[in-house]
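Posting here for the record, re: zinc ion.
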Amino acid sequence: MTMIDSEDPRFARALALADASGSWLKLRDQAGHCIAVGIPSSKPGLHYRVTRTTCECEDQQRHPHLTCKHRLALAIALARKAAEPMPASVVIDGLSRILSSRKPIYSTNFRED
Ligand SMILES: [Zn+2]
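Prediction output follows.
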């Protein structure tokens, strides 16, 4: 788990990076799962490959015991995404799938003898 220290100057820079998370590169495995993101470096044209626990930037290499701004930005972006409400269509599809797999409790077919 990444601890966030709002007194750390990396935090403000991480917030700015997280605000631009829509422009990050997504690195996917063959199954299509996102395994890392490419966060732009302050050097134009460069991206750092970042996961929850690793980053290729100089700051992370120099201070491996600390969390660099890129890893902080990823933690912030993931926390924001987890807090987003699910679209109604996803909820309805999920409920429909659950209901279709259940056996009916009662029958609506009435027969008069
Ligand atoms: Zn970094």
